[in-house]
Design goal:
Layout (H helix, E strand, L loop, with lengths): L9 H13 L4 H14 L4 H10 L11 H5 L6
Length: 76
């Protein structure tokens, strides 16, 4: 089994712990229960097409270069 670390607001974590406590189970069990279906989600081609169509009104005002299109917002 692989370990991961994630960040969340302290108040959200505490609320999640309270819910898990009320269900008499560890928070990690609730997280694993959520993770399995989340990792199995698939988006259909129709959903992608619908999203693209809903964003047709968006205009960046210019064309982006190849480097700009491949740039990651979080990379510095």
């Amino acid at each position: 089994m692989k370990n991961i670390t994630f960040s969340a607001a302290e108040s959200d974590i505490e609320r999640a712990r309270e819910v898990a406590r009320s269900e008499r189970r560890p928070l990690i069990d609730a997280f694993r229960e959520w993770l399995i279906p989340y990792g199995s989600r698939r988006v259909s081609a129709a959903e992608v097409t619908e999203l693209y169509n809903s964003l047709r009104h968006v205009n960046a005002g210019r064309k982006f270069s190849r480097d700009e299109r491949n740039e990651r917002g979080w990379a510095k």
